Amino acid sequence: ANPFDFFARAVGFGNYVFSDWLFLGFSTLFLSGIALVFSKDKRKHLFLWTIVLIMFLQLPRDPLAVKSIAHWLNVLTNPFHFLVRVPHMTSLLLPFFFLPLIALGLKAMWDLVCLKNHVAIYINRLYIGGGLLAAALFLYIFYSTGHGLMSEVIIKPLLFGALIGVVYALFFMKSIWIRVLSFLLKYRLKLIVSCVIGFLVIDLTLLSIYIKDDNWSNVRVFPGEINTLDDSELIIPIYQNPKILAFREYYRANANELISRDPRAPKPYVIRNPEYHADGKSQEPGEVSWYRLNSRGSVYGLFYQFNHIGRFLFPASIYHPRPSIFKGLESDEKAIDYLKHDEQLIYSAKTRITDTGNPDLANPAILNRNVVYIDSPEVNSQTEFPTEFNRVALEGPVNLGKATSGQELAGVDIYFDTIEGHYDKLALFAIDESNNILTQTFLEKKEFRKTSLLKQFIFSKPILIKKDQSVNLVLSPTKGSASIFKIKQSKSDKKYIYFEKSTPSPRIRDFRFSISNGQKRLIGSYTEYSFKLPDTFPTYASSTVFTKDQYKMTLILGDHNFQPAQGKLVRPYTFDVQNIQTGMLTILLPQNHKLSEDTLTLSYTFPSKILNIWKNEHDNFGFDYSASTDGWLVIHYPFDKKWRLSIDGNPVNIYKANKYFIGAPIEKGEHKILLEYWPESWLRELISLTIILTLVAFFSLIFIGIKSENSHDPMTESI
């Protein structure tokens, strides 16, 4: 908001612009002007200069510009100025600072009209006040931007009449003074009442026009379509229980905002007034997306678990700031593909590659979280591979070894040194003890470069290897029926490395509830049941409609599969876990539902490697983690040197991983991990101290005011 547009916007009722100055009305400015010109009460300066400071804080910060004096005052007097990214929202406080001026203006106007109490007003400033009023009316009538509204056609002639009256009074004040005095003495009460009522009628009428044109409050709700998916019945009241900051195993990295439980059907839906968004695109409800019409960052709620990653895929703004490490992330296509590929908040990789330049996050091994780039000169620059990996020179078909039993084999990532040869493709086979091919995949020659690289082989059909089964992995270059593959010779043998892309067995637990034991409540045509969750249910888990975590909870009653919700239930056959109430499961059934089955089954899939969450705060995250091998732990929090990581109580150095995130070495086994932000800072204590001092100062001022008022009590003084 530009402070030089303040007066025009304060009475501009026909052109609402979000993030601009609020409509204050003619009466606010008129009465405040009377207070500033005529009132002798020095307290008016306290509110006047506060308003001026807030107005000029909206200007861009330029240390060398005279206009930045407000920013300098903020820097030098506000000990927590660095916490405020922009002071724009402080402009919403302006109406409250105008209220005392309005009160002083009413008092001064009463004293002027009644021709009394000249000690409290500057009676000799009538000409100054009249001149300022005439100038303000003239500028508004002839220089303010019109919007073609009928209300303007009515208001401006009325104000022009008032301008003529003010100018006439200024020029002929001496000759009409006696008549003015007699008129005021006779009709002063009616005059003041009429003036106040007239101002109220005019400003309330203009305010109704302003509100009608407020497209951020005038919201229409109808079905919308995103990615060609549409659900005309979907309603999502979004709510997150503040008593538990639910842990989400997955982050959101989709620029299309919300996701649905059923990828074939439900999609979100809240659309702004389409007449306001004349962007040349179709405004049909089914063709208007949330992305185009709504604030993208607030869609996840006010909690860190809903705010990371996804909101940073858009350019930064005052409402959507970002960590400095994420600068340029919205234009980094490879990084966006990397984030969308898996969406796990935490993972561990066996292998790391040191790269202090611009790492290729599109590398298949990086995408599939098998390798991590570490950007740090402190780490050895050579590519590091765990010693248990097989290293064999490749000449023709080679048996890579046996796949791990008890795992689902989905593919293999192979590291190749510089290679060349005459071949059409490379084939990878999974073969059992009887030499039967269980699954296979191929990579074309064009997929390779003459440089060291990691390539991914994805099997056409993943296989689950039984514990007593032996499966060999065989890599073979092919050209027709011949196998021809040559490695460029050098002094040392060229190596390759393979490792399995296995999926850990999910940890699923069922919790059962009896309908007859639930707390029953009738809501219109529905029946709501609430059940207390057992002590063994994880306290950090809640149902959600965001992220892939929505698939981690399922609820079944007979033949009915319930859909998860996040907050108040408004549709039948939906359920909520710990959002409405801590420690409670809530379901909604139609009243006509026949309970042929009495048992509810709630299934929860625990995080695969995260065994427990024992601290989950905005800047303190403690969890138990099971690492299957020695390697590197990657946490998709923005890298910042103020983060402190400890594993089993021992401080561990953190590194920039995969260009933007946090990485640290970890050993095989179970560990207690604590990630803290700036724990050695006194900031939290200083904020608490500031709150305490603010309260003490507030109540002290009240006490001093009451004591001062009592000391001037006429009854007390007469006694």
Enumerate the spans where pLDDT stays under 50 for 5 or more consecutive residues.
216-236, 255-307, 381-393, 480-498, 715-719
Separation of the first and last Cα atoms: 56 Å
Rg, Cα atoms, Å:
35 Å
Beta-strand content bin = 15-25%
Shape: elongated
The strands making up the biggest β-sheet line up spatially as 13-20-16-17-18-19-15-14
Largest sheet report: 8 strands, mixed
Q: Can you give the helix content as a percent range?
A: 25-40%
What is the number of beta strands? 28
Overall average residue pLDDT: 75
Number of helices in the DSSP assignment? 14
Structural class: alpha+beta
Structural account:
- The protein is an alpha+beta fold and 719 residues long.
- It is 28% helix and 24% strand.
- It contains 14 helices and 28 strands.
- The protein has an eight-stranded mixed β-sheet, with no helix packed on it. Strands 3-23-27-26-5-4 form a six-stranded mixed β-sheet.
- A hairpin with a 3-residue loop joins β21 (610-616) and β22 (620-627).
- α3 runs antiparallel to α5 (94-114), α5 runs antiparallel to α8 and α6 (126-143) runs antiparallel to α7.
- The longest helix is centred in the N-terminal third of the chain and has 40 residues, at 173-212.
- The two termini are 56 Å apart.
- 25% of the residues are buried.
